[in-house]
């Protein structure tokens, strides 16, 4: 027995992209539809690698395919393959989108920097902030040890009541009560209206 390798015949070849572009240049919608089916996947893949954002990638890929429809008459076979021509358009569009987004971000930063108004008196604000922090520290020192630990863990470290109870090895109800009482004492000490 001999082993014979059968190569696929012409019926298995992909579409002739040059022919499809040529027919698309004359407004043949069926040719463009077949061209679209052949190149849209690679176009989207390339654009997505550049942009990374799926929605923007789809938008840019559609823009590229519209450009292919509009500029099919400009394709020159002697300059390269159809796929290279289309993917070059796709890459340029994707890079343009990235540059445009970066330029917009840079503009927003410049506007924000220009519109930033320095505080009237930074020294006064810093002193006021330090005084407020010192008042909070003084009021915290007026709490019981359990109240202070519970309040610090919950409000300054972000733990839940259950986590605070576990950390302090105290029943949850006791922690809630101590925190409520501690917060009331802090409010009164700081002179905050309820």
Would you spell out the secondary-structure blueprint of this structure?
Blueprint: H1 17-25, H2 29-51, H3 54-71, H4 82-115, H5 122-141, H6 145-156, H7 161-168, H8 172-190
Helix pairs in contact: 1-2, 2-3, 2-4, 3-4, 5-8, 6-7, 6-8, 7-8
Relevant terms:
mainly alpha; 194 residues
Describe what this molecule looks like in 3D:
With 194 residues, this protein is an all-alpha fold. 74% of the residues lie in helices and 0% in strands. It is built from eight helices and no strands. The N and C termini lie far apart (97 Å).
Q: How are helices and strands ordered from N to C? A: HHHHHHHH
* Average pLDDT figure: 85
CA radius of gyration? 34 Å
Structural class: mainly alpha
Distance between the termini: 97 Å
Range of strand content? under 5%
Low-confidence regions: 4-12
Shape: elongated
Q: Determine the fraction of residues in helical runs and give it as a percent range.
A: over 70%
Beta strand count: 0
Main sheet characteristics: none
């Amino acid at each position: 027995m001999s082993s014979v390798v059968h190569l696929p015949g012409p019926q298995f070849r992909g579409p002739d992209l040059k022919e499809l572009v040529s027919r698309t240049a004359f407004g043949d919608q069926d040719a463009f539809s077949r061209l679209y089916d052949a190149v849209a996947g690679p176009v989207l893949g390339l654009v997505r690698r550049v942009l990374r954002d799926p929605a923007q990638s789809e938008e840019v890929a559609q823009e590229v395919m519209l450009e292919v429809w509009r500029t099919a008459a400009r394709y020159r076979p002697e300059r390269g393959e159809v796929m290279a021509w289309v993917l070059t358009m796709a890459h340029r569009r994707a890079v343009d989108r990235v540059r445009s987004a970066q330029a917009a971000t840079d503009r927003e930063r410049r506007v924000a920097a220009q519109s930033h108004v320095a505080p009237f008196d930074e020294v006064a604000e810093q002193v006021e902030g330090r005084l407020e922090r010192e008042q909070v520290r003084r009021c915290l020192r007026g709490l019981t040890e359990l109240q202070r630990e519970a309040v610090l863990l919950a409000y300054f470290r972000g733990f839940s009541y259950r986590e605070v109870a576990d950390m302090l090895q105290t029943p949850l109800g006791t922690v809630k009560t101590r925190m409520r009482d501690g917060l009331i004492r802090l409010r009164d000490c700081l002179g905050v209206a309820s």
